[in-house]
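lol forgot to send this yesterday, sorry. struct tokens for the thing we talked abt
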């Protein structure tokens, strides 16, 4: 668990460590106001002087000579290291920060970000020399423990500066605020400059695109133009099983260790064209309605260095959850997602108490193109038969024991 702690002088460390981490981060660094950007002093140009203690450290950190800390940024005393504000070849301006983790832990420099809104998208970018460097958001909630999201990581070649970028989507029950941490892992060092956090409005604009609706014999499935699950319901019924409040797109990709969500979804002939927030990342899929399921097939993935493609249908969490076949169901309805090819993996997970993500992924190491998934959704009295039908139609083993589906047969139950 990441434990950001805000300490601004070399005194009071022991007493601060006895305080609640969450309570400490309720306080913003002095000087931040609503009119300022989401992240201040990302180029480390404004500095404040620090006074090292008898051990030569400031809040357990070793600083340069003179001992300086960038304004608005905080040294994480739970993850201390070395920070030098240098002037030798910055990416821009007069300074850059050199982060080094010589100890047993990573070294975190962080800033509390005011003004982030749950459900919105943001772009994070920075310039790195050396590395690898990682950018990670600490997330604070009213009642839940501190969470987090890694949004980018990478290094440069040789002594040249390289820009890294990633995307951030805060949210969750009781979300309060976030802090952006820039860090290096133990044994590594990186020069960092020009850290930027900015709102990204493209998803809202893309949402105005045409909805895409698919129907089979029993259910209707609708995706929005920005790749969100809008509707999953039994034909002719009003009950909608899509978790409309979940801010998670159906498709996402991982490249260079950074997750990039889908930006837009559009129909091009028989294929579904996906454009991700990373402008270089694109994919095409095909969604084929079958009698009681939808078959999702990956037709192409660009560029070649995309490491992972994930399909994620956030639905209402029903009374029962079956991790073995990535399902949730009650006595009225059931839904599940499973891979039908060997290069897929089922990864269902809860997102809070009322949302179940029916997720599946495929990976570059095993081949992304050609991966197939079956989304099964049906009234409960047809649900188990629909799963068996989807397994058989797509070449997935569907064993029977004592004349019953193996998953509910007496030998398995025992």
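and heres what i got for the seq, position by position
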């Amino acid at each position: 668990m990441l434990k950001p702690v805000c300490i601004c002088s070399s005194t009071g460390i022991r007493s601060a460590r006895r305080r609640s981490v969450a309570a400490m981060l309720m306080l913003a660094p002095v000087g931040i106001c609503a009119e300022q950007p989401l992240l201040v002093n990302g180029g480390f140009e404004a500095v404040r002087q620090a006074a090292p203690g008898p051990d030569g450290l400031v809040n357990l950190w070793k600083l340069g000579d003179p001992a300086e800390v960038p304004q608005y940024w905080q040294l994480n005393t739970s993850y201390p290291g070395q920070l030098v504000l240098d002037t030798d070849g910055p990416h821009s301006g007069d300074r850059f920060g050199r982060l080094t983790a010589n100890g047993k832990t990573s070294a975190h420099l962080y800033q509390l970000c005011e003004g982030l809104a749950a459900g919105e998208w943001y772009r994070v970018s920075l310039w790195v020399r050396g590395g690898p460097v990682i950018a990670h958001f600490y997330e604070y909630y009213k009642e839940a423990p501190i969470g987090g999201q890694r949004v980018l990581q990478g290094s440069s070649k040789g002594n040249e500066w390289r820009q890294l970028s990633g995307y951030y989507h805060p949210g969750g029950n009781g979300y309060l605020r976030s802090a952006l941490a820039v860090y290096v892992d133990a044994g590594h060092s990186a020069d960092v400059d020009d850290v930027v956090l900015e709102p990204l409005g493209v998803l809202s604009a893309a949402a105005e695109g045409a909805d895409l609706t698919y129907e089979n014999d029993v259910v209707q499935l609708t995706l929005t133009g920005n790749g969100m699950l809008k509707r999953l319901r039994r034909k002719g019924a009003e009950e909608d099983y899509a978790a409309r409040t979940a801010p998670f797109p159906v498709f996402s990709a991982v490249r260079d260790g950074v997750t990039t969500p889908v930006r837009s979804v559009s129909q091009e002939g028989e294929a579904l064209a996906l454009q991700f927030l990373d402008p270089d990342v694109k994919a095409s899929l095909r969604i084929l309605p079958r009698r009681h399921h939808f078959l999702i097939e990956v037709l192409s993935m660009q560029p070649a260095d995309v490491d992972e493609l994930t399909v994620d249908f956030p639905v209402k969490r029903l009374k029962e959850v079956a991790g073995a076949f990535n399902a949730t169901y009650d006595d009225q309805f059931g839904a599940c997602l499973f891979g039908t090819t060997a290069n897929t993996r089922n990864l269902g997970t809860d997102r809070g108490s009322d949302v179940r993500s029916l997720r599946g992924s495929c990976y570059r190491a095993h081949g992304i193109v050609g991966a197939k998934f079956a989304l099964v959704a049906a009234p409960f009295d047809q649900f188990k038969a629909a799963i068996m039908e989807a397994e058989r139609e797509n070449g997935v083993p569907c064993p029977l024991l004592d004349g019953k589906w193996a998953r509910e047969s007496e030998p398995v139950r025992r």
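The helical segments are 13-17, 21-24, 202-206, 380-393, 410-413. anyway ping me if u want another try
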